[in-house]
Amino acid sequence: MFIGWEGSAHNAVVLKNALERSYSLRVPTGKYYLADGNYSTRNSFISPYRATRYHLKEFSSIQPINSNELFNLCHSSLHTTVKRAFTFSRNRFSIIKCEPYFPLQTQVEIVLVCYILHNWIVTEGGDNFIQPENECARRSRCRRGDQAAVDDSREWLDKREEIVQFIRTRMQNDGY
What we know:
Blueprint: H1 11-20, E1 33-34, E2 45-46, H2 67-92, H3 104-123, H4 133-139, H5 154-173
Parallel strand pairs: 1-2
Helix pairs in contact: 2-5
């Protein structure tokens, strides 16, 4: 956990710092994270295509017209699912929303327990309090204008292209 930043810092700056520390954030070998548009595509982090339709509501009546839009549609769907899980957890476990009065290690353990409970609720039969995906997408207030001005990594841009090709091939094979 990285604490102690004074004032506000851009997410991309915090991530860069987290990756450079001696006890840095580690991405398992062969895995990657989908990052939102505020990040560059870099080692183990793949962001959506910029200047391309992205949000689910933009595809409500129009299908993707190229592979970049198709990738962004899939990326947005996954992003919405993760965001919905965080929103659900904050709403269900009010201890996450309140000002912490516990030692840092206790705070970390509280969050861990809340997400274990969340996963158990979802796995063991769902919950009436989980909002439908289209409702969360409707309420989304994502902004694309404040993206970090950081160079993308050619290697991970190519990785994103591989994923796009895989998605395109699967869709063609399934008759889309």
